[in-house]
Amino acid sequence: MCVIGFAILYPVLMVLCTALKTDAELARNPLGIPQHVTLVNFDSAWRDAGMSKLFLNSVMISVGVVLGSVLLSAMGAFALARLEFPGKRLLPILLTGGLVLPFETLMIPLFYTFKTLHALNTYWAMILPQVGLALPFGILLVRGFIADLPQELFDAAEIDGAGLWRQFLSVVIPPARPALIALSVFQFLWSWNQYLIGLVMVQDPNMRTIPLGLTFFVGRYSTFYTGLAAAAVIAMLPMFAMYVVFHRQIQQANLAGVLK
Fold first, then answer.
1. pLDDT, tens digit, 9 for 90 and up, residues 219-257
2. Is the pLDDT of residue 156 over 90?
């Protein structure tokens, strides 16, 4: 575990060390710890690349993806776990196929669909494809948790006169909260790091997200490595914050068996 942890943390440490160096020190000692710490690169990255606008776009898109994917995943998982309808046994197979379907196969049809709808360079062009791609994983994840709930809970709710919506809101959502929080964290991280969908759907510089904005530091003949590293550190901060705030819920989801 120590070896695995070091292999994971070493690149992050190198990015942080690079962000705290000057260009001259990076050329002299590219892999070492900075001797003279500087924060100039962070200020330069924030101003020159317009990180405030990139942050706003990424937050708007990621929050939209989380809300849409979690709500639809919970509803779909409830229907798949508790309701009877034609094709129910076939649906998990189709969802499993959706897990392995790469976005590259959908890229061109999605582009022309949103172009026809005049929806390119909008938040919807970034949010809707990510919600659709997130549903197979989300439904299968939450379905495993809902299927483990005792049938007696739903029988008691029906005796008390609760309909499907009341059962969904009062019986399913409270005990499934760890699974939904874990799914929200996963989808936020996935959406925050999404590059290809933004590259295809957005040509307006004002609609770019953080992964697209990092290309600002990569030129045709040279790369501003210290500024790129500083921007990458800024981009990583929300993900670290998400884990620090919700790590207990993620652990509860693991212990509850929803990640099986």
1. 766 678 888 888 888 888 888 887 788 777 666 655 554
2. no
Identify how many contiguous H helices and E strands the chain contains and give both numbers.
13, 0
List domains and CATH numbers for the chain. Answer: 1-38 (no CATH), 50-256 (1.10.3720.10)
Q: Are 138 and 259 in contact (CB under 8 A)?
A: no
In angstroms, how far apart are the furthest CA atoms of the chain? Answer: 75
**Measured between alpha carbons, how far is residue 119 from residues 125, 140, 200 in Å?**
6, 30, 12
Q: What is the pTM of this model?
A: 0.83
Rounded to 5°, the CA angle 184-185-190 comes to 100
Q: b/e per residue, 201-233, with b = 16+ CB within 10 A?
A: bbeeeebbbbbbbbebbeeeeeebbbbbbbbbb
Q: How many CB atoms lie within 10 A of CB 44?
A: 16
Cβ atoms of 194 and 211 within 8 Å: the answer is: yes
CA distances from 197 to 103, 144, 165, 191, 208 (A): 8, 29, 34, 10, 11
The residue among 210, 208, 219, 228 whose CA lies nearest residue 42 is 228
Using alpha carbons only, give the angle 56, 57, 61 rounded to the nearest 5 degrees.
115
Summarised one tens digit per residue, pLDDT across range 69-119 is 999 999 999 988 888 888 888 888 888 888 888 888 888 999 999 999 988
